[in-house]
Write a structure and sequence with these properties.
Layout (H helix, E strand, L loop, with lengths): L1 E5 L11 H15 L3 E7 L10 E14 L2 E12 L2 E8 L17 H18 L6 E5 L5 H10 L8 E6 L7 E3 L1 H5 L4 H4 L6 E2 L2 E6 H8 L2 E4 L2 H9 L7 H6 L4 E3 L29 H12 L8 E5 L8 H13 L3 E6 L4 H13 L6 E5 L3 H10 L2 E4 L9 H7 L3 E5 L2 H6 L16 E3 L4 H17 L1 H13 L5 H15 L1
Parallel strand pairs: 1-2, 1-6, 2-5, 6-7, 7-11, 11-12, 13-14, 13-16, 14-15, 16-17, 17-18
Antiparallel strand pairs: 3-4, 4-5, 8-10, 9-10
Helix pairs in contact: 2-3, 3-6, 9-12, 10-15, 15-16
């Protein structure tokens, strides 16, 4: 099957979050199963070019409609970890992709709308006819709209669109000029049945457009699918998702075991697995040495997270002190995009700087992330909402016991040691429901208490998590089933 992945991100060359990991992981899994997979990206000036092999120009003078004129583009090709990637190189006066960053520009809607039209224009001009175009989040929400409103009449007659919602908190609510820019007709599309935003009668909603026009819509976990269809997690689009329930479902993300695997991780001082768990102690020792923590008979509780409201920053702040009060060491790795939150964590860092049991690393360091997963005993994820979450799956693979709030993909992957109805060999962590300090502290207290009083049971929870299959194998097959359904 010929599958085109159209995305704003793909790890490791263009990654701002979990979307990049998703596109890389799924594309690789589909390729390994013998499918023809091509990934389409903007050629940002901030790509990690050292990770791209054999970059060459494959198409010159691609003229892309832009309002009542056209903008010249070229298309380049390169391989990233054996993935076939095509890059849109635009020569617009606006310099859409030469901003030094992927997101965060005032004209982001216009930048990514241009990208959507350019990818489809390239497919038409190069006589590409994918069986399925798989596109992601609001940045590519116009791809299904353009496919059926414009490009089907120009030759893309049998191509079908699969659309994945990664985070309903960002919907792409834009001025109707974005539609005119790419050759769409606002008077036809700015209706409540199509792209009109339910909360703003003057605006178009790009995620809504993707939902309405795609042949199938997915999101990144079964629990999150239920939440956004039946609760206010749908951010105003829950009624629309109920309307299109027959073409909507949740597929749990996987993680890439070629990147995240303690049995082969070169960032660790010694590799280990479920049958060689005592070797994890060497990573714990190395983590303490790197961060200046005391070598003591204490568990290490970690947070590896973006520090924003979605991730439960108020609870994370309280957790630092509760962990220390409970006889734990605490390690945090993360950055805060919001200045006020950043200032709060810097104050805590300075306050606890002399503690032999605490270290806050405010930034992101890939090598340190691997060492934290390798060396820490528990990980805390107190999210307000969490579409899928990769952190808990990575942590479990490395023998960490997760303490999580029961939302989204966290609820689909973490099963409480005491209260789950799963058999004991499938229980792997601690879960709480209420978004309160008391609920979080109760779950943390159970986990910490088990580490101190019943170490053999704590070790069994580690092994249970390590033996769970959270690879891309199962979701890869589920997506192939969806694609075959669309072709049929």
């Amino acid at each position: 099957m010929y599958i085109a992945m159209v995305s704003a991100e793909c790890a490791p060359i263009a990654k701002a979050g979990g979307l990049g990991d998703f596109v890389q992981g799924l594309a690789r899994e589909l390729s390994l199963r013998g499918n023809q997979v091509e990934v389409f990206l903007p050629k940002y000036d901030c790509l990690r070019f050292e990770c791209i092999q054999g970059m060459t120009q494959v198409y010159r003078d691609l003229w892309v409609p832009y309002y009542d004129q056209s903008v010249r583009c070229d298309v380049e090709y390169g391989e990233v970890d054996a993935l076939k990637c095509y890059f849109i190189v635009e020569h617009a006066r606006e310099n859409f992709f030469g901003r030094g960053k992927i997101y965060g520009e005032p004209d982001d809607p216009h930048r990514f709308a241009f990208f959507c039209r350019a990818v489809l224009e390239f497919m038409l001009k190069s006589d590409r006819h994918p069986d399925v175009i798989h596109c992601h989040d609001w940045q590519t929400g116009l791809v299904p709209v353009l496919l059926y409103e414009v490009c089907q009449g120009l030759g893309l007659t049998h191509t079908r669109a699969c659309y994945t919602l990664h985070n309903m908190g960002h919907q792409g609510v834009v001025d109707e000029s974005v539609l005119r820019q790419v050759g769409l007709k606002p008077d036809r599309l700015m209706t409540m049945e199509r792209l009109l935003d339910p909360g703003n009668p003057q605006a178009a909603n790009l995620i809504k457009g993707g939902i309405v026009f795609a042949n199938f819509v997915t999101t990144v976990s079964p629990r999150y699918a239920w939440e956004i269809e039946h609760t206010d997690q749908g951010m105003g689009l829950q009624g629309l998702l109920q309307q299109y329930d027959r073409k909507f479902g949740g597929v749990l993300n996987g993680i890439d075991y070629t990147v995240w695997n303690p049995e082969s991780d070169t960032h660790l001082p010694a590799t280990y697995g479920p049958d060689t768990l005592p070797q994890k102690a060497l990573s714990k020792k190395a983590l303490r040495e790197r961060l200046g923590l005391e070598d003591a008979a204490k568990p290490i509780l970690a947070v590896v997270s973006r520090l924003d409201r979605q991730k439960g920053v108020d609870l994370i702040r309280r957790a630092i002190y509760f962990a220390l009060e409970s006889g734990c060491q605490f390690v945090l790795l993360g950055s805060a995009p919001e200045p006020a939150v950043n200032d709060q964590f810097w104050r805590i860092k300075r306050e606890l700087e002399s503690s032999p049991d605490c270290h806050l690393e405010l930034g992101y360091d890939e090598e340190l992330a691997h060492l934290i997963y390798g060396g820490a005993d528990m990980i805390l994820i107190p999210s307000v909402y969490e579409p899928c979450g990769l952190t808990q799956m990575i942590a479990m693979k490395y023998g960490m016991v997760p303490i999580v709030r029961r939302v989204g993909g966290l609820a689909d992957t973490v099963f409480d040691a005491n209260y789950s109805d799963k058999p004991f060999e499938e229980r792997n962590g601690y879960v709480f429901d209420e978004l309160t300090e008391a609920a979080m502290e109760a779950a943390m207290g159970r986990a910490i208490g088990l580490w101190f009083r019943f170490p053999e049971y704590f070790s069994q929870l580690r092994v249970n998590g390590m033996r769970a299959d959270n690879s891309w194998n199962k979701p890869g097959q589920q997506y192939l089933d969806i694609y075959h359904h669309l072709r049929g």
